[in-house]
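Hi there,

I know you've been waiting on this one. I reran it after we fixed the sequence typo, so this is the corrected version. Both the input and the resulting structure follow.
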Amino acid sequence: MDTLEASAIDQALDVLARRPIVALTGAGLSTDSGIPDYRGPGSPRRTPMTYQEFLSGEDAQRRYWARSHVGWARMAQAEPNAGHHALAALERCGALKGVITQNVDGLHTAAGNRAVIDLHGRIADVVCVRCRRRSSRAELQRRLAELNPGFIEAAGAAVEAAPDGDAELAAVDGFRLAWCTGCGGPLKPDVVFFGENVPRDRVERAYAMVDAAAALLVAGSSLAVMSGLRFVRHAHEAGLPVVIVNRGPTRGDDLATVRVDAGCSETLSALAAALGTAQ
């Protein structure tokens, strides 16, 4: 850790100490768990499937689920990293009152956080577009494997993993889809796609979590989309200090009280160690 990073962390500690904190997290927090992000430094340009495209028909759904079938086999093995464990430790000691995450990987809960709002849903759940029946992604993986024996092995270990549990595949011809066991409708991961709105009640619960805190800690988000940026703006307008930890610039930098341009794992670990003793 260089002098500038250490100085910024000290400033963040001055802001966060003895204040109830809520955290807003993004994909940059999970990169140390082996899950790539969309906009971090060095990340390749990616074009995720939109909600409208997914609903356009079986061709788009086949492309999505073939890629997800390969990607899920890897994402399901991801484990919480030091950054996730640091936030769980902050919750246990009473410094952190809750987490609003834009990630769909479920790693905050796996690390031990209990007050978590999964803003964009969880990739481990599946929903029927037609009847809204929910089911397990692990069960769907089993069904897809039976319908497409050897597909993962044929894709090969060199296939590049992509964010949100999918993989970069050139060919998906012949991949067989699984349908809702209740009504026969198309299945969708229970996550918010690009172009899809976050459920209103979920947004309201997130706003309430920010209002109940005295500081907002942003970790691993470029705040490029309004889905996360609105909570930073809300906190700033309410007079709450905002600490942003992220490699590279964010859309919320002009609203930040303190900006730490560093990795989440090491920075959150340092904050947790210091704030845990200050409670």
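Quick highlight: The two ends are 25 Å apart (CA to CA).

Best,
R. S.
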